[in-house]
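Technical annex B. To support the medicinal chemistry partners, we prepared a structural model of the target in complex with iron/sulfur cluster, based solely on the information shown next.
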Amino acid sequence: MTDTTSETVHSATDLLFEKFGDAIQADDREGYEGVIVSSDQLVDVAQSIRDDLGYNLLTNLSYVDYLADDFFEVVYHAYRVPAGGPPLTFRARTPRNEAILPSLTGVWPSADFQEREAWDLMGIRFAGHPNLKRILTWEGFEGHPMRKDWREPFYEEDNKPFKTRWPGGEVDRAEMRVPYGMNVQYPAGFTVDGYSPEGDAALYAGLAVPESASGIGVQQIKTDQLVVNLGPQHPSTHGVFRMTVTLDGETITRLEPVMGYLHRNHEQIGERNTYLMNMPYTDRLDYISSMANNMAYAITVEKMLGQEVPYRAELLRVLMVELTRIVNHYWAIGFLLNDLGAFFTPSLYAILERELVLDLFEATTGSRMMCNYMRFGGVAYDLPPYIGGPAVKPGDRARELDTLQFLNDLVFERLPRSLDELDRLLTTNEVIITRCKGVGVLPADVAIAYGATGPVLRASGVPYDLRRADPYSIYNDLDFDVAVRYNGDTYDRYLIRMDEVRQSLRILQQVVPMLKETAGEDYWAGKRPYNVRVPVGEHYGHHENPKGELGFHIVSDGTANPYRYHIRAPSFINITPLEEMCRGSKIADAIIILGSIDIVLGELDR
Amino acid sequence: MADPTPAIHNPDYPIPEELRNNIAITTLDRIYNWSRAKSVWPMLFGLACCAIEMIATAAARYDPSRFGMEVMRPSPRQCDLMIVSGTVTKKMVPQIVRLYNQMAEPRYVLAMGACASGGGPFKEGYNVVDGIDKFLPVDVYVPGCPPTPQALLHGFITLHEKIESQSITTVPWYRKGESEAIPVPILGPDLIDLRQASLINYMSTQTPEPPQPAAAAEEPVAG
Ligand code: SF4
């Protein structure tokens, strides 16, 4: 199956060779795939890849600093949507001292934020980008931190484990080493006196009321346009997200998301870490769906290692991932209702069910939220035989329940019933219908152009689900449908989550009996090494996370630490069409449109 | 019938038998602290993963209304407690300090989780502040990554104990004059804590040293 699909990628690149000749080179480095495009032809080639070859969704844009060879490489991955199959990889290079590439925002608007990220963190300019500002750090930040020769204030060594800690085990407080006693550093000769920060000037300048085309300044006529800032501390931004909107009366004319308030330098820390050390960090990406993040990372590295996974481990993984999906969608629905003004009551219903799933996670992995459950070649633990249940009678303290019985009750009775209850309470509710129907419409072609994935894409009528489009794990053997809705409005984005929960329950109802059958089988293959060494090469692995496609682009130089560790975060890219969806809506609708995209800041800002 | 107000009742003072159930005699400190401790309103703002556990704590299963703490206010003016629930980044810390300055006294800060307490798993990150106590006075630290709801509730109880041990005569917010606001840090080439301005200026006259690797530990002694 994968053979035929990788053949389609090959025949596609053959067409490119024919059409562009010397501008295209095969990437013959060991362990790499795809083609290298010369930068002056990049836009034309991209156009051809989109229009002639049909790779219409630019899913990922990653950037690698090849310090020894003195160039930056930007790696693009494109999909055929909804046909499916593996991504087409193409890349372009630019010298380190004068890093500039043509922007692909004209071909794929989904490149917008990703190019800004590459500029911010790597210092690659994109000629023709409409708004090339820093995105995760702030204007005025010194340096481009993902460059291999950039050092953070608490720098110790390039790679972990650090010699101060291992094997001696001494305590080393980074605060003692830096002059300020804090995680900061300043360029040589920097003084505070006379320094004026750039602040938000660039942001607000970009949002200023535009001159109208006829040459009459809008500002000269008396109008009501004003710029409103929302967040980063705001109860409806799902964390520390911020947006600034330009309003004409109540109507949104422009909107700019501002992010980076939770930029935790995931990728940079990830490149210092060893491969396995990154597993608990992935928990903290989309912290509502930690199991699914584990899965995405595990399958990516396993692919590079060529590691097989035992059947029971696959079952356990699918069990955990689908439970996570249910939790995530419940959470998303609950908080969408919060945004609609039904403050906290629907969320309480949603959180109640989540607690039950978390009981299972805690009993299995030892942690409610940050499960750190998967390993390369399997999972860390089997299901425990018993699980602590809540007290139900007076005088009870806690009860021991048989885990499989607990799971059975959960997926055959409790969750379907609670879903029906939510359905009954919410779906036909008049307020929800009037506030959500026709609001924030995202047509299918726009969704694809902006790189939306997951429920956001499927609510726009594109049946694209990686579990079916590029199958992995045991999803091929499981019976489920790809949920799809066709209107692309907020109401459909609500409904699609209900549908997906139903499909997940369907999967779980097949998995739980199989868990019973495979009890006692091996759940972690291989030697279970602490420190894996990944063969030289590059791989982009992806997984259908509850919020969309979570991808990991990993470059290995054969050592114990990843040379490049890039995360394609679904929330980050799904937020790209936010302005498209909000333009022309009322300000109150922006809140629910944002809520219906379902973002989580941990992975949006990384 | 049990004494309805055991915590505030001061039994040292003799009360006639027939008034026992109608009158409680107490000190001003006790009644003041008792009423404050039983109605601590947290600020409705979350930073990172820990915020999810904070929300879970606020939900039905753990029910913080048992502690009078279910009323979360999004406006700092109406809050008594700031729960710093997650990683404090450099980009976010000016906002957090500003929010703290906007809270009316008495105000408390609870650092929830490893990140808010000391940087946590992301401590070495270039955009991470290694603990909110670099900027704000923290009253209670709750360990965990994330702390379980039970741990957070324990943090609440610890805070209540702290509140109940304070005395009106010494608390800072009844002293003369205004309490000083914490200077809001600036986002420059890196985060600038204005209280360190003179140190930064002094360092600019020194020859710059790039960040140094830590000295390697001594060879571990066998055994
Ligand atoms: S302490 Fe852990 S759970 Fe809490 S914000 Fe930090 S990383 Fe997230």
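Notes passed to the chemistry partners:
The first strand of chain B starts at residue 81 and ends at 85.
DSSP finds six helices and five strands in chain B.
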